[in-house]
Design goal:
Blueprint: H1 3-14, E1 22-36, E2 39-53, E3 58-62, H2 69-76, E4 84-89, E5 92-93, H3 97-103, E6 107-110, H4 124-134, H5 141-154, H6 171-183, E7 189-193, H7 201-218, E8 221-225, H8 229-235, E9 238-243, E10 246-252, H9 253-258, H10 263-270, H11 277-282, H12 313-317, E11 323-326, E12 329-331
Parallel strand pairs: 3-8, 3-9, 6-7, 7-8
Antiparallel strand pairs: 1-2, 1-4, 4-5, 9-10, 10-12, 11-12
Helix pairs in contact: 4-5, 4-6, 5-6
């Protein structure tokens, strides 16, 4: 975590800014799936997730593919209508269509795939300018053009790129176009949905550094969704771990890497590559047995119990409470004290 980012968070914490920028309470997103015979069954993609994000903070969200990370981000921005739960922006609940429209003037999203998230029939200028058109954020065509060129410059694109089409650019450049589009509305908050997973490793570092620079310069808050644990640790202030639609652990980035409490988090962190060969040889990789269950037929009680070496009958009987074991460190496990 950069010293400047730490300083910004400490300043926010001591300036009386107790109200989180974003707060999510018991968020649920169920999809009705046809199981045959005109019958449907709810797929619990997100099942009772709660968290908050402060001004200028990055919350990393990690977990296996299919655990509900992307659905959390999309539901948070009301791209999916929440099945249940509450979403707050600066202390005010976002619920009605009018409130959602106002929220979307301050919240944006950078999508995972820079190849499919950009309209191939639109020029770069029109892609970046589309949010300005939707929210009527300019008084004249000249003001619109100046704003688009300013946004392009802020993400490292040249002005001559404005009249070109998305297919003429590399993956990294396309993602920069997507980031410029997200910045067009002057957002306070951006959902970053695996924004570097489709990029070459050499380009990933450039894009991650750009996210850091934009956050320091503009005071942005991020929900950073990813499966690359090294990337998440680099950019995040706090990290939340999801498994099968549930949040199982939440703590500061360094705390969750150095002292994970949930058995699933322990397995995840043991898989993170270590550049020091001596340390790497000393580390013990925790291999999980079995496959992640289907969210259509999730286990009773704790969703991780079918793969957990510490599971007992109590784990099958009830979902463990998401509780604070130490300051700022939350975990959902019946046996967190016993196995650590």
């Amino acid at each position: 975590m950069s010293d400047l980012k730490e300083k910004n968070l400490n300043t926010a914490a001591t300036s009386g800014a107790d109200t989180p920028l974003i707060e999510v309470r018991d968020l649920k997103q169920y999809f009705n799936i046809n199981v045959g015979g005109f019958k449907t069954k709810p797929l619990k993609a997100v099942d009772g997730v709660s968290f908050s994000i402060r001004k200028g903070e990055t919350l990393g969200l990690v977990g296996e593919s299919g655990c509900g990370k992307t659905t959390v981000g999309r539901t948070l921005l009301h791209l999916y209508k929440p099945t249940a739960g509450q979403i707050f922006y600066q202390g005010q609940e976002v619920r009605t269509p009018q409130e959602v429209k106002a929220f979307r003037k301050k919240a944006a999203m950078v999508f995972q795939d820079p190849y499919s998230s950009l309209n191939p029939r639109m020029t770069v200028s029109d892609i970046i300018g589309e949010p300005l058109d939707i929210h009527k954020m300019y008084q004249s065509r000249k003001e619109r053009e100046e704003r688009i060129l300013e946004l392009m410059g802020s993400v490292g694109l040249n002005s001559e790129h404005a009249a070109r089409y998305a297919h003429e650019f590399s993956g990294g450049q396309r993602q920069r176009i997507g980031i410029a589009r997200a910045l067009a509305i002057n957002p306070d908050f951006i959902v970053c949905d695996e924004p570097v997973s489709a990029l070459d490793v050499s380009i990933q570092a450039q894009v991650i550094n750009m996210f850091d620079e934009l956050q320091d310069r503009l005071g942005l808050s991020y929900l950073f969704i990813a499966h690359d644990l090294l990337v998440v640790r680099h950019i995040s202030n706090r990290i939340a771990v999801m498994y099968l639609g549930k949040m199982v652990e939440l703590a500061d980035a360094d705390e969750i890497y150095n002292h994970p409490l949930h058995p699933y988090s322990k397995a995840l962190m043991s898989a993170v590559p270590v550049p020091d060969p001596v340390v790497a040889r000393a580390n013990r990789r925790i291999a999980l047995e079995g496959d992640i269950p289907s969210p259509l037929n999730a286990p009773s009680g704790c969703p991780f119990r079918t793969r957990c070496p510490h599971a007992t009958d109590a784990c099958a009987e009830s979902m463990p409470e998401f509780r604070e074991l130490s300051k700022g460190h939350f975990v959902a496990c019946h046996h967190a004290e016993d196995v650590n």
